[in-house]
Amino acid sequence: MIFNRTQMAVAVIGAGAWLWSPTAAHASLSDCGGVFISGDAKCEFRKTEECMTTCTTESVETSCSAKIYTTCESDCTASANVLCESSCGEVCTTDCEEAIVTEKQPPNCMGLCMSDCQQSCSDGGACDDADKKGPCRACCAHNCSDKCEAKCKGKPVTKVVEECMPTCTTACSGSCTAKANVECQLDCQTDVYEECETELVKTCKTTCEDKGGAIFCDGQFLNAKSAQSCADQLDAEFNFKIDVDIEVDADVSGSIGDGKKKSKVSCSVANIGANAGSGAFALFGFGACAVFLARKRR
């Protein structure tokens, strides 16, 4: 498959390629550890057994970058370069107009900004000579996402060609601000990355074991305090439907406290915020589980 400029592969995060177009959906997820997720990401809840085996150094790159980024941000405050903005503006305007005229899709500021910015993370960019390209690209991508969102948040989609230039002015300001700060972020994150990596692999395994599993997007562990809250936010932002398994202690042979053996019953509950059909199924599933438990208790 051949991609045009507005569809080029611009960065690799972990094992997956993130493709960007001017219309790409993208959002920061505070309930999922502060990571940025693309609308075409593949997210799933992995249960304990599979979850434990996927808690590797490669699977925590995105979450580590998000965790360290905020700490480093106070020292990385460079402004956008005028030459960068001018160069970006020419390409951005062409891509924007092409998206409207050829693809008949309204571009958005965030997509245009990311399309330009993430080229600095791919081969030949800031991470070309990095010893560990995965963590470097994760850091670079998060840097792009944060700066682009800061400039583009709340901006409407561009519906006519005449709107491309002002939209690209904003998009390129975000992209060039990110590019001006990427080396600072990489230097800062490199100093503490291994410590974060070790910590998050441990957190990942603990989450898998203690909470019955964890959510992964494109193979990357989401360092969420609550898998259900993260699933709800993914559903709200991208209409992703993720079932989070909740294990409930049930007494299968007598009342609690009578000294008889208990066993665990797993009830799968669909995430809140699903459509009406899914919601009905979720309530039915939870109700059936509750009836089953009640019968077991009797």
Fold and architecture overview:
- This protein is an alpha+beta fold.
- The protein is 50% helix and 15% strand.
- It is built from eight helices and nine strands.
- It has helices at residues 48-53, 61-73, 82-101, 109-117, 133-152, 164-210, 227-238, 276-297; strands at residues 9-13, 16-19, 26-29, 35-38, 43-47, 213-217, 220-221, 243-250, 263-270.
- The protein has a three-stranded antiparallel sheet with strand order 5-6-7. A two-stranded antiparallel sheet has the order 1-2. The chain has a two-stranded antiparallel sheet with strand order 3-4.
- Helix 3 (82-101) crosses helix 6.
- The protein starts with 8 loop residues before the first strand and ends with a helix.
- Residues 1-19 and 248-298 have low confidence and may be disordered.
